[in-house]
Please model this.
Amino acid sequence: MSNELNALSLQSEDSLQLFEKRTIVELTDNELSEVHGGTTPACVAASVVVAGAWTVIQIAKAGYEFGQWLQ
Model:
């Protein structure tokens, strides 16, 4: 058990050292717009479809619950 704790302690120290050695990169708006990747039109369309479907489901659920309440 002691060996396992020592191994975890060493891993934690290694992780901390790796984290401390990293730097933060600050990009301007122009640099950000030049980055390749990010959100594609397909992702945006999928998000809109999911949000719309979720809204319809919530409205239908509220209508059903209201109908149950009326009975």
